[in-house]
Amino acid sequence: MCHLVRPGVLTLDSYVTALAKTRTQTNAALDGKWKCVQTAKALRSLRFLSPGPQIKAFNPENSLRERRKLETKVKTSLPQRQEVYDERGLLIGSGLDLCDCLDEDCPGCFLACPRCSSSKCGPTCRVNRKWFYDQMDVEGGEIYRNKYST
Q1: Separation CA 12–CA 41 (nearest Å)
Q2: Residues 6+ apart with CB under 8 A from 144
Q3: Which residues 6+ apart lie within 8 Å of 137 measured at CB?
Q4: Residue 90: its pLDDT value, please?
Q5: Average pLDDT of 99-125?
Q6: What positions does the domain ARF7 effector protein C-terminal occupy (predicted)?
Q7: In the chain, N or C: fewer CB atoms in 10 Å?
């Protein structure tokens, strides 16, 4: 069977072939443009930008970053605070059961502690406490000083 094709009229096969060629050409053109855009962006990011007068005034000894770095070194090198009272509420250094009023003869003048039930704890429990009272001022002029503070 013979098909007659008029001049200037495309057959289906030739139309599909022509369409595929134009698509590959446009894709290649778009790929080329995209690569140019990527190259331009890369070159822009790599170009030297003069920092100007800021770099002349920069002194690393006075920079905030250096100060922060030194402060963190100091903070990490500080020893941890030692506990003053043990797990039973006794002074670690002397082993005494000293009331928080700092009177050595006191049997306990505070309300029972909700945590350890001792009447010698002041407002905060003495169990594993890391601090102690240096002195206690009583109304009437009497001052009790902690003899066991180091």
Answers
A1: 43
A2: 101, 102, 103, 135, 136, 138
A3: 143
A4: 92
A5: 92
A6: 41-138
A7: N
Cα angle vertex 123, ends 120, 126, to 5°?
Answer: 50
CA distance 35 to 21: 21
Q: How far apart are CA 149 and CA 131, in angstroms?
A: 10
Q: What residues are paired with 143 via a beta bridge? A: 137
φ and ψ at residue 143, rounded to 5 degrees: -125, 125
Residue 47 DSSP class: S
Q: Which of 123, 114, 118, 131 is nearest to 89 (CA)?
A: 118
In the structure encoding, which two tokens stand for residue 92, read together?
Answer: 């670690």
pLDDT of residue 113: 94
Q: Please give the single-letter amino acid code of residue 97.
A: D
Q: What is the pTM of this model?
A: 0.45
pLDDT confidence band for 9 (50 / 70 / 90) = low
Q: Is the pLDDT of residue 99 over 50?
A: yes
Burial of residue 85, with CB atoms counted within 10 A of its CB: 0-12 exposed, 13-18 middle, 19 or more buried: buried
Show me where the domains of the chain are located.
80-150
